[in-house]
Every structure is written in structure tokens, then in C-alpha cells.
Amino acid sequence: MKFPHARPSARVAIAFAAIYLLWGGTFLAIRVAVLQLPPFFAGGVRFLVAGGALYVFMRLRGEPSPTARAWRDIAATALCLFVATYVALFWAEQYVPSGVASVIEATLPLTAMVLEVFLFRQEPFRWRMGAALLLGYLGVAWLLISNHDTYPAFPCLVILASGTAWSLGAVMTRSMRRSRSLPLTAGAQMLLGGIALLALSQATGELQMPLHFTWRAGLALLYLIVAGSLLGFTAYVWLLARMPVTRVASHAYVNPVVALGLAYSVAGETLTPGMLVASGLVIGSVILILALPEPRKQAGAATVNPLRTEEIPHGCQSVAR
To answer: By residue range, what is the domain housing residue 40?
Structure first.
């Protein structure tokens, strides 16, 4: 990401503003899109266009195409990262306010940590980690209990499950064979995910119904494609090359704050005391997770924490925010 007329410090500020504000706005954009367009169709168009554009751009810059083995791995992770995750999120945001969805989605680092520790055994369990996990999931539980009359609980649980699918795909990405270029790999994942979502849209009969493509829905999709997937991700990769990963990962607890503010000020969504308390618990738990000290490396061994590695989860996770 180049800012030819800006000083280095200004470039960093612009890039952070991009991942804080642009990604924070994606939840509201999804909400606007799925209230007027079929959810699987909206998700498919977003990722087909964004992924195709990113993939073609990187190929034109000289990046080699992934091998046949790499394409198989990319397809497998795309099923988790962009199909299972966004089938759930786009469907659920028909029934759940965007601010609520952003708070639940903020638990992504928590679900990734659970998979790392208990399923893949990539990280040792530590008391501070356990406290963070407990705090975060208490926040989600409080969100469901305190606002059960405002919106249904089932779509909220679907969003929580979508975060598990996303985290699983992100952890799987660690071991897959892929291109040296993270943008190329992410573009390929989005491209395949978009094709699968459009196929699902066709299979479920969405495309057989007349589409009411209003200007609001069009602007929402354009925002998701350009601001959410292309500009935001470019800024993220640019920052990863210049800043500590934990500092860049601060978007994980800033995005929900931005999303809640937009939901209240732009969309007129109600912010209840229960939502604010739950948001504080979830965001506090994410801060604890991201602030965990690096484990000491053993001789001949490398640290394997995908939350602190440019190579995998947050690099690919953040494409879609």
C-alpha cells in the first residue's frame, strides 16, 4: 500500500484508520445488503469480485499461480473461511443487529485460541488465557440473556458457530502449501469461496426469485468489495510488514467499537445496557489474549502462535472483515 505524498508516520496512521474504520463498517454494510438481497447471493458476489480482482492483480504483478496441491489446500480452507463462515454470518444478520453481530464476531481470537490449545495442541494452557476465554464467553452469554426479548438467540449462536468455522480454517491455513504471496492466496480463497456461495444461492433457489437490487444494496456491496476486502486487506498487509503483529491485531477490539457506533448513529439500532456490558467483557477478553507474552522458543523449534504470525490466521482472517 503506497501513500506517495504522506510521511511514514502519516502512512501508518492512514493504514490503521483503514483497518479500524473500514472493517468496523463491514457489519453494517452486511446488514444493509442482506435486508434487501438474498444472503448467499450477496456474499457470493462480494467474494467473487473481490477475490477475482485481488488474484488477477497479483498474477499481473508476476506472482506464480498456485500448484495443483496448493489449489486443493486453498479450496479446503476456503470452505471454512468463506463458505461456512459467511453462509452463517450473512444469514444471521437478517435477524440480528449489526452491532450485536460485531460483538459476537469479536470472539474470533478466543475460538482460535481454544482450537490451538485443546484441539491442535499448538499452545500450552495458561491461567491468563483461561481467564480471557472465560471473560469473553461470559460476555456472549450475557448478550444473549440480557437481550432475549430484543432479537432471537439462535442467529446469535449461528454467528458464534461461524467464528469457530473461521478459526478452524485459519489454523488449517498454517499447514497448507501455498503461494509465497499472502494476497494471492487470500484472493484465491475468496474467489473459490465466492463461487461456492453463488452455487449455494442457486441450489437454494435464491436466484430463482426476483432480485430487488436497490441503490442501498448496491452501495453496501460496493463497500464490502472495495473498502472491506481490497483496501482494508491491502492496508493490513502493508502494516504487517512494518509493525509488530500484536499491534496490528488491535483491530480485533477496535472494530466492534466502530461497528456499535455506526449501528447507533447511522442505522438507528438500539444500544441496551446489556449490549454495552457484553461488549466490554468481550473486548477486554480479546485485549488479554492479544497481550499474552510470547512463549519462549525451544532450541530448534519455532513459536507456533497463529495470532502472532504474519504468515497465517490474522493475515488471512482479516481479508473478509
So the answer is: 8-294+301-320
Gap between the Cα atoms of 283 and 301, Å rounded: 32
Q: Is residue 3 part of a domain?
A: no
The whole-angstrom separation of Cα 29 and Cα 156 is 18
In a domain, 196, yes or no: yes
Position 1 in a domain? no
Count of domains forming the chain: 1
pLDDT per position as a tens digit, 83-93: 999 999 999 99
The secondary structure of the chain, three-state, reads CCCCCCCHHHHHHHHHHHHHHHHHCHHHHHHHHHCCCCHHHHHHHHHHHHHHHHHHHHHHCCCCCCCHHHHHHHHHHHHHHHHHHHHHHHHHCCCCCHHHHHHHHCCHHHHHHHHHHHHCCCCCCCHHHHHHHHHHHHHHHHHHHHCCCCCCHHHHHHHHHHHHHHHHHHHHHCCCCCCCCHHHHHHHHHHHHHHHHHHHHHHCCHHHCCCCCCHHHHHHHHHHHHHHHHHHHHHHHHHHCCCCHHHHCCHHHHHHHHHHHHHHHCCCCCCCHHHHHHHHHHHHHHHHHHCCCCCCCCCCCCCCCHHHCCCCHHHHHHHHC
Which pTM does this prediction carry?
0.84
The pLDDT tens digits for 116-138 are: 788 877 778 888 888 888 999 99
Query: In this structure, are residues 235 and 15 in contact, taking their beta carbons and an 8 Å threshold?
Result: yes
Asked, for residue 91, whether it belongs to a domain, the answer is yes
